[in-house]
Amino acid sequence: MTQKDNPQVERVSVSDAQAGQRLDRVLTESLEAFSRSRLKGLIESGQVTRNDEVCRQPALKVSVGDQLVVTIPAAVDAVPLGQAMDLRILFEDSHLLVLDKPAGLVVHPAPGNPDGTLVNALIAHCGDGLTGIGGVKRPGIVHRLDKDTSGVMVAAKTAEAHAALVTQFSDRTVDRAYRALVWGRPMPPIGEIEGPIGRHPKNRKKMAVVTRGGKAALTRYRSLESYGDGLATLIECKLETGRTHQIRVHLTHRKHPLIGDPAYGRPGGRRALPKALDSDETAILTEFPRQALHAFRLGFTHPDTGQHIDFETEMPDDMLKLKSFLESL
What we know:
By secondary structure, the protein is an alpha+beta fold.
C-alpha cells in the first residue's frame, strides 16, 4: 500500500455544547469536508469508534468528553471509465475547474448514455488530481446543464471544494446568467417569471408550471434585441432558483419558447414566419437542432481562496449564426 492509499483518520472530542446530540450530527458539524450522508455511511460500515469501541448507530447520543475516531478509507477508482475528450477549460487549480460545455455533451452517465459524458472526460483529464468525493475518485458535479444547453460549468476536484460549492448553490449566492433566442417579443421587455415547477401532469418526462406539488422557481429576464418585427428576441436570463429545465419551462409558460427546443418549443412560435422566406431559410428557423440556450456567465466564491471569480463566454457558433440570420430579416 502506497502512502496515498493510506486511510485518512479524523479525531473529534465531544464538547459541552455537543453533548446529547446525535453522533452523525456531531461529526457533520466537526468535519465540514464530509456530508452527513457520507459520515452516516462510515458509521454504519464500522469506520467510527467512540471511546475505542466501534459504533454503528448514527442516532446514538454522545456525551461530553467522548473521543470519536473516524477512519476514511482511501478513495476507490470511479466506476465510469475515463475517456479523453477535447475540453475547453477556462480555469483550473487543485480544487476545481471551470469549463465551457459544448451542446450535445451529456453531463452524467445514465441509461442510454453509459459513457462519452462530461464525467468520463473529467475523470480522464484530472487523473490523480481527484482526491475522492463520497469515497470515490470522481469529479464533483455541483450543477448541471441539459445535454443540448451549452455554457459555463464548475466541477470540484476535492470533497472540501464540492461541499463549499454545493452550499453556495443552495444559498443562491452563485451568479448564473444565460442568453437565449426565443420566439416572439416578451412583454414587458424586462421582468420576471415566477411559478412553481414540477412534473408535467400528462407527460412525466417533461416539467411544467404546476398548481400543486411543485418547487418555487423565479427567473429574471431582459430583452436585448428583437428581430423580424417581433418574430424572435435575444434575451438574457438570470436564475434565482435552479429547477430542472427552469428557463425552458418558464418561457414556454409565457408563450415564448426557445427556438429549437424539442420538448417545450413550437416551430414558428406565436407568429407565422415571413412569407418571403424560401424553404432553406424557413428550415434555419424551424429545424434549429437544439434549444437556443447558452449559460454565458458563472460567478462564485473560490472555496479555498475566498476570492469571488467570474467567467463569461460567447454564444457558440450555431447560436451566433442563427442570431445573424435573424438580424437579416
